[in-house]
Amino acid sequence: MKTKSLQGRVALVTGSSRGLGRHLALALAGQGADVFIHGRRNSPAGEQAVAEVRAKGVRSRLVTGDVRQWHQVRELMSTVVAEYGRLDILINNVGDFLFKPLLRLTVEEWRDMIDSNLHSAFYGCKAALPTMLQQGWGRIINVGVANADRIHAYAGAAAYAIAKSGVQILTRSLAVEVAAQGVTVNMVSPGLMDDSSLNDEARERQIHAVPMQRLGVATDLVGAVLFLVSEEAEYITGANITVSGGWGL
């Protein structure tokens, strides 16, 4: 039987009790990695995700914590390493989105966009890197958004875009700092994603904006993520793979 490419690796995917994070966790498990499912709090969805990961023949459990808070992220990483003895792969997937003009945005909403998207990624990297550097092997993937590497107006989504642009700089900066120590830091950036909250008119409008004429789905990001965590990608760091069907080009 062919050995799975991530056999023996331990992964943590933040925000993986549902949505994109859940799909990424299942993909890592499918390649043999033990996967920690993460949610802000205990939930039936989180436990269901754990059961689905375990069904692939690997270890899994649910860990909780608010990744906007440094002390909770530090405790989260300590739990992972204490229980499974290592941490090889971290996917910083958490990132709330709010569409609202800047002048209507409250100070609290602004802060939440930065905390959820940028600070959470920094805290995750800071807490995970000591273990990865000690091991001499690690893969960090930050989830961004297509176009965040381009400086232009983001009417209605400025705070979110500013935070994701910061994640791009964070990714590249950390990539340089740890490149000689066996750890890579990369980014995947989805474009317009299929969202069940969209009404038919809004959905059609977004589809027409995408050259491939369809919205992205969570599984579209799986290939990029599995490549970046693989041995074949060991010489790739600081990269940003845009998964947008041509949107934003």
Task: Describe the 3D structure.
It is a single chain. This protein has helices at 19-30, 44-54, 70-84, 107-135, 158-178, 200-209, 222-228, and strands spanning 10-13, 34-39, 60-64, 89-92, 138-143, 183-190, 240-243. It has one domain: NAD(P)-binding Rossmann-like Domain (Rossmann fold, 3-Layer(aba) Sandwich), CATH 3.40.50.720. Helix 1 (19-30) runs parallel beside helix 2 (44-54), helix 3 (70-84) runs parallel beside helix 4 and helix 4 (107-135) packs parallel to helix 5 (158-178). Strands 3-2-1-4-5-6-7 form a 7-stranded parallel beta sheet, with helices on both faces. The longest helix has 29 residues, at 107-135. By secondary structure, the chain is α/β, with parallel strands linked by helices.
Structure keywords:
249 residues; 7 strands; Rossmann fold; alpha/beta; 15% strand; 42% helix; 7 helices; seven-stranded parallel sheet; single chain
Rg of Cα set: 18 Å
Strand content: 5-15%
Number of helices: 7
Helix percent band = 40-55%
Rough outline: globular
- Total strand segments: 7
* Mean pLDDT across residues: 95
CATH superfamily: NAD(P)-binding Rossmann-like Domain
Number of domains: 1
Structural category:
alpha/beta
CATH architecture label name = 3-Layer(aba) Sandwich
Biggest sheet strand order reads 3-2-1-4-5-6-7
CATH topology: the name is Rossmann fold
User: What is the name of the CATH class?
Assistant: Alpha Beta
Largest sheet: 7 strands, parallel
Terminal CA distance reads 42 Å
Order of helices and strands: EHEHEHEHEHEHHE
